[in-house]
Amino acid sequence: MKNFQEFLTKNSFYITTAVSICVFIYLLTQWYELSVMHRLVCFIFLAITAHEWEEKLFGFEELNAGNLGVSTEQIQKGVGYIALFFLTLYIGLIPLLLPHIIWLTASCMMLGLIELIAHIAAIRMNKTGRFYTPGMITAFTALPLISIYGFYYLLSHDLMAPIYWLFAFLNLFIPLICAQVISVKSMGVKYGDFIKNVRGSMKK
């Protein structure tokens, strides 16, 4: 089990990239068979992969360690990468596997906006004094733009009954919060302290 955890921690980005390549091929070959919303799901998955690489290449790990008051070693030993890996696969691929359940696509669109909010918090928590935070470019461009268009399409075509928005919200936020709690605690940080830090930063 430990070896499997270490393997995923070291290689989750590469596995996500490999899956992303498959999603891209699927998007190209099935373009005319896919609905607009499922094309957008593919685009969100590709954007999330690009976002993760932007974070990896430009030091999000070090920034996150500074914001949380932990070492990069603690982050590397945590399960944050694994939690993010499974959350990305779940939110990004399930809508493609179950295309008849339209509210699953709304969960995926919500994820794009969550990344925007998360990076606004990261900017406010940033103690280095730099404006740019790793992942900010994709979080402020591709992800929210795809999400906003997705919401526009869902609403303008009346594809979602009101109760479906609740389903979509819970489908994203229950696994997201669980992943966040597990990730934060695995680094030796109390989740309550983490939330207080985030709230304090957002009030600045």
What does this structure look like?
With 204 residues, this protein is an all-alpha fold. The protein has ten helices and no strands. It starts with a helix and ends with a helix. 31% of the residues are buried. The mean pLDDT is 84.
**Strand/helix succession:** HHHHHHHHHH
What integer value in Å does the Rg equal?
17 Å
Query: How many strands appear in the DSSP assignment?
Result: 0
Give average pLDDT, whole number.
Answer: 84
What brief labels describe this structure?
single chain, 204 residues, mainly alpha, 10 helices
In short:
With 204 residues, this protein is an all-alpha fold.
Secondary structure topology:
Layout lengths: L1 H28 L6 H22 L2 H9 L3 H6 L2 H18 L5 H23 L10 H5 L1 H15 L5 H25 L4 H12 L2
Helix pairs in contact: 1-2, 1-5, 2-5, 2-6, 2-8, 5-6, 5-9, 6-8, 6-9, 6-10
